[in-house]
Amino acid sequence: MISKNRNAIFEFLVTSNLFAALYATSVCLITLYLTNHPLLFILPLTAFSGTLLIYTMNRYTDRKEDIINNPFRFQYLERFGKATLSIAIGLYLLSLFFLLQLNLATFLIALLPIFIAIIYSVFRLKRVFLLKNISVSLGILCSVLIVMVTFNDFTIFSLLLSSFFFLNFLINTIIFDVKDIEGDVRYGIGTLPGKYGLKKTKMVCYALLLVSILLIPVLISFTQKSYLLLAYVLYIGLYVTFADDPDKLPSWYYGIFVDGENLFLCACCGIVITLKMLV
């Protein structure tokens, strides 16, 4: 019974896109922490609402593929898609209103993911090999850029940090495509796993991970908080290593474990902050 309830919760978090929204929110929070900027609640709220809106929009354009790749996601969309979309639009518009009062540049950055989503989903950019992964990674990277723009922070550290995150977002999107090979191939969506198979896909991900690891010593030279990134890349290395046919893995592997990388890092940040307060 406990196992069934746990799986039901996991399925809801992933299918409703709440977990993806929390993923982007955690990226924003981590960036604020590592760059020593104060917590502006509107920034993580924008990351949350914008991501929820984008992913829900994408579910509508992906309905044909989801009938094959994820029937449960298709059924959820049919029942609750309009309600989820309405909530996402409301929160996002509210965020944009407050951002416009705060900073015009921040407001424009908050709009960027929507433009990326329209090009990605409506104009089917996802059918172009690798551009799918790059566009999604850029969309998530806006959770980092919104912090940089708000605080006018374009230091070497922040630029290197954004590069580090982009590489790892790219790995995430590539590995996530492993679970959707059948539907992507059938509908002509070009992905690394679909075109070259799992083994070569993992080699590409390891190469990207190596580049991001090489950035960590440089980031640590700016702030010792960057030591946390070592745990982050270890986490990513683990899910790349054990990625496989989704039928051979637990149902939560891709939706929770793979997309949980930034929540994992947020938890690490929370533990460090708590320990410092107690000492």
| Secondary structure category | mainly alpha
Approximate helicity band: over 70%
Number of strands: 0
Computed CA radius of gyration, to the nearest angstrom: 18 Å
Largest sheet: none
Low-confidence segments: none
Let me know the average pLDDT. 82
Q: Give the termini separation.
A: 41 Å
The 3D shape can be described as: globular
Give the number of helices: 13
Question: What string gives the helices and strands in order?
Answer: HHHHHHHHHHHHH
Please tell me about this protein's structure.
By secondary structure, the chain is mainly alpha-helical. The chain has one domain. The protein has 13 helices and no strands.
Can I get a quick summary?
The protein is mainly alpha-helical and 279 residues long. The chain has 13 helices and no strands.
Can you give keywords for this protein?
mainly alpha
Reconstruct the topology from this structure.
Layout: H1 2-15, H2 18-34, H3 42-61, H4 63-69, H5 71-102, H6 104-122, H7 131-150, H8 156-176, H9 181-186, H10 192-222, H11 228-241, H12 253-258, H13 261-278
Helix pairs in contact: 2-3, 2-7, 2-13, 3-5, 3-6, 3-7, 4-5, 5-6, 6-7, 7-8, 8-10, 8-11, 10-11, 11-13
